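Q: Could you write out the predicted structure for this multi-component system? I'm mainly interested in how the pieces pack against one another.
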Amino acid sequence: MADVKTHSGSVISIAVASALLTSGCGESSSYTAGEGYGTGGNAPVTTSFNEQALLTHLTDNVITPVFQQFNADALQQAQEVSAYCESEVALANFDITDAELTPFKSAARLSWENAMESWQQAEMMQMGPLLDNDGLLKNNIYSWPVVNYCAVDYDVEFFREGEVNGAPYDITLRTPSRKGMVALEYLLFNEDLDVSCESGSPGNWHNLSNSERRVARCEFAVEVANDIATSSETLLSLWAGDNGYAAQLKSAGSASSMFASEHEAVNRISDAMFYLDSMTKDGKLATPLGLFANSCGAQACPEDVESGYAQRSFAHILNNLIGFQALLTGSDGPGFTDFLIDVGDTDTAETMRDDITTAIENVRAYETTLAEALVQDPDAVTQTHADVKSVTDNLKADFINSLALELPATSAGDND
Amino acid sequence: MIKTTPSVLAIAISCCFTSAFAQESTANDTADMYERIQIIGTDDSLRTEAGSTTVITEVELERFKFDDINRVLYGVPGVNIREEDGFGLRPNIGFRGATPERSKKITVMEDGVLIGPAPYSAPAAYYFPMMSKMTGVEVFKGPAAIKYGPNTVAGALNLVTRQIPSTTEGLIDVAAGSDGYGKLKGYYGGVSGDLGYLIEGIHLRSDGFKELDGGGDTGFEKNDVMVKLNYDLSSNTLSQILELKVAYADELSNETYLGITDNDFAISPNRRYAASQRDRMDWEHSQFLLTHFAGNSTFDVTTRLYRNNFERSWFKINGFKGGLVNRDLQQILAAPEDDTNAQFYAILTGQSDSVQEYEKIILGDNARKYYSQGIQSDAYYNGSFGNLKHQLNAGFRFHQDQIRRRHTEDAFLMEASNLITDGSATVATSTNRESTDALSVFLKETLFWSSFEFTLGVRGEFFDSEYQNEASGEENDFLLKSTRIWLPGVSVFYQYSDSLGFFAGIHEGFIPTSPQESPEVDVENSIDYEIGTRYHEGSSQLEAVVFYNDFKKLKESCSFSAASACGDALDEEFNSGAASVFGVEFAAKHTFETDGAVNIPVSLTYTYTSAEFDTSFDSDFPMWGSVVEGDPLPYLPEHQVSFDIGLTGDRWDVFASSRYTGAMHEASGDGVLLSGVETKSLLVTDLSASYLINTHIQVYLKVDNVFDEQQIVSRRPYGARGNKPRQFMIGYQFRY
């Protein structure tokens, strides 16, 4: 090897010292991002549209009234169910006749249908308190498609006995599928007094007379209806109370809001509108149609319709569409269609407005239940699915792209 | 048993460097190539490197013949580990409080070269070298580690493969054990004239200790072949050698990310649900390394040219299809009694069939191809300023790496406890590329004055990264980033006597962000301090270190292996508020000699760690949540103890190794799924014994986890999983 020259120490020391001084400058960085980076492929839009006005209008004049209506309906429902149950007890005591019971029972059922009409619009508006804790409050009110009628049967008996595994029965501690509107539908509309369990049955149910069973079910129905009313109060409080979610939406972009920008808050509302895709289109139509796997093995399946006991599936779909339409158009104020027009996508605005109107009109035209239509006229149901799909196709593409919104996480895996 | 020694380079600085390793207790020793590769020497005198370093020699590795890097590192102070599969196939290793997740915060090397699949672009070490072929393990923490970037906040791990032997020799090692364990290992090497050669091959297998619902293999098969050739070009005035290493490895393992519920773990800790029956990791790795060394007593330079290729298919359950009802696997396993979760749980376990669309099970193939290549060189120069000796160490590394993702998903139905395809088309999920070009430089100067060694150093990292969405129509989804950072360090060693010394050091730590991550996410940055003492007298050694790492921000990333709750935040990175880690590391060993021919070596290692956030913040990262100042960092036990004892005779030896790992938090703050949940403390004891029948033949017996103690070691990625249960193994070695 060639001889290595010994350098003077000063040069080395200066080099190290210089390097250390340079270190004091710390870190520097720079970047260049593509137009599609961080937007899911959507470039931000430049618009003068007043998103604050959109948020305020949709919150105050569309969503809040729906929640208020549900609250009123839930309270009315609790009264009607209570009155009905008093009649059931009277009937059991031979104080009234079956004929005298009927109007009370019908009124209770009607109150459930009314509550469900407002709730099915609220389903389209799931945000904030309805999504917290994995949607616990929402599920406490309406857990569909998670239903467990056998579990309801058990809770009827637990409630009748006043305890669960030695602890006093407390409906607030019970899981959602044992209560809520799903359970209430079963209790009010199911005429079969046998339990729905594939195996086993709760406690002494098989020893009860039919009269005792009806009383047991109606008394639990009262408990459930009261719990729903309480949940509706909770929802209203968390939504419209001081610094509630509505206030957070309306103050988006300010320091006091959880939303860093108005656009982020608008995106939470658009997230909720995707209920029309995953629940209405896929769950309420594609699944019973057999377009998706169902309990009949991917063929038309009346057993898989929503609200099979009350046979109100079309009504629910209709109210989903009405709720969506209100958010889309804003009804009597600014809506998403105005936003679309403002950013220059009038075509999408008009197409979606027309498509949702068509879907609503066609659903209104049904004179049968969905379960019947699936058997008698499956083509019509397929068309209804197509009507809704035409709306959601635009929702997932042009709507989102034009408004530079993000798809909700749960919509990432497209089921179409 | 583990030998604790100081770091190389004497010192000091902590900072810097790409690859230079040395054993420079004195400035004028003549280094050779293997010292540069092996980093830390093993002589019997007091080491004067400042900084905490540990070397585990071949002799020590042979005692327990561990195939699992986790088991090897449990005896090293300052190491925190989150076990996952029980075999250490994909280890999670952190040092001094760094998140152990996929060992992505430490610098992992093999023979002094970065060995992660793409250390800059995708630092999660889904590939980890086969432990069974290593003849040395070196651990550098704190200031001693920054030489080995890019990740300098925690430490570096260097795995050393077998050297080409100086005389002809070979070995055949055959072992078999419970759970279908099998090992076949052999090597042959020697020197012919100026040419050295070595070939080594290993096959490792197990049927697995997990019990799959409905039956099935939960084990693995791994193969590794390595060839080394070198040529001695030395002259009278210059040592010079050129060495080529070529290696191939593969793994086929029936592993899964799916764990079980706590209740099921209590009943049957090794159960695996039916929904994981198709999960499989299948990878291949190839490696090329050309090393040139030239040096004499004054100057030496080591240059390495390297290329690593890694390709994998990782097919595993991602979750349920969802849509109408959405539940994350982690949610389901955390609360299986919830009536929404109950049906999903029944499907996972094969008790119910998938009926609804949302009940279909999604299996994803996270197919990825990586490469990592570069050239690195480091040089040492020993000189003097009058009577003042000094050593200069400088080097550079130009490195390129890349990851290409081709992730897809398929839908399956659970039918009669079997996963059946639903016939739908495979869906592409992530299709992208991340790549980085990085230049690293380091400079370190050590001055030897009286009983002191002072070292100043600096490391520079300059890298340009690129993220490109490669899905059709997504050409505008790209990000180009440039980062430049200088990281200084300083350290000192004071030799009080021939057997006792003290050291201290400060350095700046750094972990880069991935190419895909938003520029709004900051790099992880810390100032790390340590002070320690070292004693070495005869067979007695002791090292005690107190360290304090002050993080301006932590950076974590959401991955399938971290938690399924990432949702659409997969691969997204997160910053925390400030955090600090304080700790004490203690390691001591001594060999008691008896009147007979029996020696009793003992060693004790203890680590105390207190790690907490210094500010309150809210994060979407599933291991953090709503953090309040003072909340602990996840997966960091407060206390860890390891105690080894042995009896050694002329022809035989028996060793016992026990380790205690304290409870660990599964999450830091509130509002995330595993908030308030801890793993329990765990005490595990391993035994080994060997007998030398003659100079050629040795037989050995091993019992891992002799008391069959099992606890939940983690509830991530999805659900609870335990450590490996008791496993027996007998082996036969023939040397020639």
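A: Regarding packing and overall arrangement: Chain A touches chain B through 60 residues (CB under 8 Å).
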